Amino acid sequence: MKNSLITWSESNLTAAKTRLTDPLLVPAYKSLIAAADQALDCSSFSVTHKTTLPPSGDKHDYLSIAPYWWPNASKPDGLPYINRDGEFNPASRDSSTDSIRFKEFTSTLESLSLAYYFSDEQKYADKAVTLLNAWFLDAETLMHPHLEYGQGIAGVTTGRGIGLIDTRNITTIIDSIIILDHVLTKEQRRGLDDWFEQFLHWLSTSKNGLEEKNQMNNHGTFYDSQVACIAIFLGKDDLAKDRIRDTLTSRLPEQFEADGRQPKELHRTRSFHYSSFNLTAYARVARYGHLLGVDLWHADPNNTGSPMLKTAITWLASFIPKPESWAYPELTGVHVLPLAMDGALPVFLQALLEFGKDQDLSTALGIAAKEVPESRDWLIWPVTEADLTTQA
């Protein structure tokens, strides 16, 4: 299956395009166009712009450092670094390495490609192609298709399987490429296909890739989403199905309790974030399963009588109007939970579109409409005002 949207839905984007004057979508559309207009003046992004050399000595190799690892104050040289879960080391988010750069590239490309889709303004497509060319194709600036040096830890390792989480949103890069397909030259599209072919091979065969595949928390789920999406993009549907079926049979029963809780995410110091984070990956894999006839959305591995993903998502949504009742670790404090809606929002929207109106989802989304009305997720997964009411 090639050249159809994969992570996003063409029918949903088409529906949103006919509703750009809908009050529910207007703030999101204005925000999207503002971001795309700003992006027109931005410089291209490249791994070669970092100031720290990877262990290979080649700036074309992606480099990031583990965000929750810090110098050991009890050691003169600070080595080896020690873990402080949930506490970001500022050095992991600066321009000396690539993680923040990749995040900005992905977000900017998404802004431009979606703005092009909704507005039909060629200027957005042209800029998006320039950014793609710099990151993936230009011999002077491209990224080598691997993450050997992702999330290294000083004094411990130069890279880990966990580093694959850095490229979790490569799935939306793929949909941006699909939106831009008729703007790309044949040579550019061939080059992008070749890059993703090599990256998929690395994901499937490397030590870091196989380590991440075996993780039984959000890391493993995001591994599945990346492999499945890239495989679909390259027309390797059988490989994608195998990965999705593994999510269904191996991960889903292991990661969720019958009431929807995720023990492996709830023990983290940012438990709400990681619960919604893992569900983001599941929603993506469920979307890919829908495309290929593997029904993850409605799977009930614990025989509870309700789809496991619906149970988990509505359980999380039930805390949005009463964040003070969240009884799990939360470094930033429960008072910020409604403001965290921008992370959970796409999951709630997809669940409502998939399962239909639900009181917990409708209530949570009603709050989200006030807290984060400008999020582009309203455009990507367009519900209606009626969906946000809780009356029967």
Automatic annotation (TrEMBL):
Domain annotation Alginate lyase: ranges: 46-326
One GO MF term attached to the UniProt entry: lyase activity
Listed Pfam families: Alginate_lyase
Keywords, alphabetical: Lyase, Signal
Name this polypeptide is given: Alginate lyase domain-containing protein
UniProt KW Transmembrane helix keyword: no
GO cellular component terms, semicolon-separated: periplasmic space
